[in-house]
Amino acid sequence: MVDPVTLDGEQTIGTFDEKRAADAVRELLIAVGENPDREGLRDTPARVARAYKEIFAGLWQTPEDVLTTTFDLGHDEMIVVRDIEVVSMCEHHLLPFHGVAHVGYIPAESGKITGLSKLARLVDVFARRPQVQERLTTQIADSLMRILDARGAIIVIEAEHMCMSVRGIRKPGAKTTTSAVRGQLRNPTTRAEAMSLILS
Ligand SMILES: Nc1nc2c(ncn2[C@@H]2O[C@H](COP(=O)(O)OP(=O)(O)OP(=O)(O)O)[C@@H](O)[C@H]2O)c(=O)[nH]1
Ligand SMILES: [Zn+2]
């Protein structure tokens, strides 16, 4: 058994236990009144366990793991990547929420920037965990500020929550927008410029 790892100095977790997850899914099937031994469900517990391992893979990664490649391009102005597809799991119901993330930052004066794909990877590190949309948004912003020494960061996430569409209040199509703004992007003019890039 691997030692528990500490992520972002805030979270201590164990390993993904595939057998335990499969046993739990089997129990769940029994609890809902199904027969987990019927042919169609026989492989389901193991399959669901593998799916959860993938869906929650972000629990095994740190933002530092993906923001490794940095260049000094002498570019110290705002960079925005729009419409990064995001799929995460609401921690209240373990149902997906999905939508898009827009990620912008102002690099450190040194011009330390990261590869564009790394911004999408950063989104995934935090999305692939049991989440709430607000925390997902702030964790991305805080990582950019901390790891890239960014002078500013702005993250906007628009998502639809399955827990609001397929159960409970049942309002398909309702979208939730969250934002996190840090550093120089709190300045109203800079923020407005970022928002115009995000919304364009
Ligand atoms: N703020 C926030 N709330 C969320 C998120 N995902 C789900 N929720 C909400 O979490 C709340 C949980 O409320 P509870 O009253 O404990 O659970 P519930 O009885 O299943 O609530 P209903 O969904 O209203 O039926 C619900 O209002 C969800 O809509 C999220 O990312 N952020
Ligand atoms: Zn939910």
How does this model look, in words?
It is an enzyme of class 3 (hydrolase). It catalyses: GTP + H2O = 7,8-dihydroneopterin 3'-triphosphate + formate + H(+). The chain is of the alpha+beta class and 200 residues long. 36% of the residues lie in helices and 28% in strands. The chain has seven helices and nine strands. Helix 1 crosses helix 2 and helix 4 crosses helix 5. It binds guanosine-5'-triphosphate and zinc ion. Zinc ion binds next to loops.
Properties at a glance:
200 residues; alpha+beta; GTP Cyclohydrolase I, Chain A, domain 1; GTP Cyclohydrolase I, domain 2; 2 domains; 5-stranded mixed sheet; two-stranded antiparallel sheet; 7 helices; 9 strands; elongated; disordered N terminus; binds guanosine-5'-triphosphate; binds zinc ion; zinc; GTP binding; GTP cyclohydrolase 1
